[in-house]
Specification:
This protein has 396 residues and is an alpha/beta fold. Helix 11 runs parallel beside helix 12. It is 30% helix and 22% strand.
């Protein structure tokens, strides 16, 4: 290998950064970065930006420490130095897509967060089996944490179940049994280099699973599916069929708004979809999985939150810059979260001033109807018509 890294002496975004480069080829550089789970968005013309806390890990993996001056000199000598061009601050992020499913494929069901109700689990497993899938249930899906009654198992066990499912070469998809709470406790325990090496697969879930969606986008640049968990598959036939179509026949998927939504701000916007559960997005601020909505269409939903708490979370995201450069906003359902008129007033106060196309009441969230959509998938929002449509199949 001809890989080099300079000291973490470049400041940015409140952190110190090193630069990882190769004086042999970009192909070698990309392979090395992918093996370590370094996200593709970290590549900057001729090098990868590496946060200081990962410097020792990259050196241990084989990169040779050299000075910044020597690193630049080696790139020039190899003809691999690329002059920086002005960035397009509104450029969307392209995420890697997984392959579609086929009858006979194996899907793993895991419980990375809360305890799973048995009756609803069995009903959801029956739906998956009815699609012709081979279903493998993780060891702790039916578990109970010995001391914490809102978790399905200790953090290390939940992380181990997820990692085993994802890295199993016979598994084509990982579907979460339910949300609740707990993903943020286990996400940093995952072996992200091993997950990256296993390549893109289908990951499905919503609510607390937003923390996993954010991590896959930020760390690996992989698209995932925001959609029903196993315990909600039997609740609504239309939502289940929508997810089945997305997974098996992605090019046949219809609009994400079969019933037009309510226009809050007119206009059209195009870009990749991002977002998920509002509370989890706000809770990710300051973490390594922070994935702002710049250049994207943000989709938001939540459940069981008082209006003042929704206000606080939206305000936090606004102050933190999460909405900076957003192209459009789709508001799903804010179930059991105050009166509809109160939600409208809040949106008019906090989000409408952004001036981007915006709709509300999309069938996404914790209501009976919860239509799946690909995070990272390109879409067109027509707020004048109240429609949201994918512009490319969500899976290969």
């Amino acid at each position: 290998m001809n890989l080099y890294i300079d000291p973490p002496n470049a400041a940015g975004h409140g952190r110190m950064w090193s630069h990882l480069a190769s004086d042999s080829s970009f192909e070698e550089l990309h392979r090395f970065a992918q093996a370590l789970g370094i996200p593709g968005r970290g590549f900057d013309h001729d090098h990868y930006d590496i946060p200081s806390e990962r410097y020792a890990e990259v050196v241990a993996a084989g990169a040779v420490p050299i000075s910044s001056r020597e690193l630049v000199g080696r790139l020039h000598a190899a003809g691999l130095r690329r002059r920086k061009r002005p960035r397009n601050p509104r450029a969307p992020r392209a995420l890697l897509r997984a392959h579609r499913l086929h009858p006979g494929d194996t899907v793993a069901v895991v419980a990375p967060a809360g305890q799973v109700p048995e009756e609803r689990l069995v009903a959801g497993l029956d739906v998956l089996s009815g699609w012709g899938l081979q279903v493998r249930v993780g060891p702790h899906v039916r578990g109970r944490h010995p001391e914490v009654d809102y978790l399905s198992a200790p953090d290390a066990d939940r992380a181990a179940d997820f990692l085993a499912a994802w890295t199993d070469p016979t598994v084509q998809a990982v579907i979460c049994a339910r949300g609740g709470y707990g993903v943020q406790r286990m996400v940093d325990l995952l072996d992200w280099a091993a997950i990256a090496a296993a390549g893109p697969k289908v990951l499905v879930g919503f609510s607390d699973i937003t923390a996993l969606h954010q991590a896959f986008a930020a760390r690996l640049g992989m698209s995932t599916v925001h959609g029903p968990v196993v315990t909600s598959l039997a609740r609504d036939g239309d939502s289940a069929e929508h997810l089945r179509t997305l997974l098996f026949e992605p090019e046949a998927l219809g609009p994400l708004t079969p019933v037009p939504t309510e226009t809050m701000v007119p206009g059209t916007a195009e870009g990749p979809l991002t977002g998920g559960n509002l509370a989890l997005l706000a809770a990710s601020a300051g973490t390594r999985d922070w994935s702002p909505a710049r250049g994207a269409i943000a989709v938001l939903e939540d459940v069981g939150e008082e209006v003042y708490r929704l206000d606080r979370m939206l305000t936090q995201l606004l102050r933190a810059g999460w909405f900076d450069g957003v192209r459009g906003i789709v508001l799903g359902r804010f179930t059991e979260s105050g009166k509809p008129a109160e939600i409208v007033r809040l949106v008019e106060d906090r989000l409408v001033p952004l001036g981007v196309p915006m709709v509300r009441e999309a069938a996404i969230g914790h209501d009976r109807s919860n239509l799946a959509f690909p995070l990272g998938g390109p879409a067109l929002l027509d707020a004048d018509k109240g429609t949201l449509t994918l512009t490319a199949p969500p899976l290969l």
